[in-house]
Model the fold of this input.
Amino acid sequence: MKYGKPLVKSSEAEVDKDKQREDSSRTYPDDKDYAIAFITDIMKHAEENYSTEDGVFVRIDGVVMTIDELLATALSDALKAIMSCTFVFLYLNIHTRSCFLSALGMGIIVLSFPLTAVITNGIL
Done:
């Protein structure tokens, strides 16, 4: 599908077959990359020109933007989880004065999450 071109009527299609072959042999940028670049430009333009100091922001909805927001949120949450695990490990290491016990304690904490999920899904 060619974006930005009008649909061809059936009578014009016979006349322009050579031109269509020529157009179909051209290389176009990947639609996904083009869509992501286009939406990113729109987001930047909206944030720069239409956001106010009162906390009102322009939000544009779409699949690419939803994925972008989800990835940004997941990355932020993962960073917070890594920081909290590091803090707990260092806290345990200071108080127990043993890297082995601290690592064992962190392992028990990390393994408790999937075990809890299995137990709660089995019971509920």
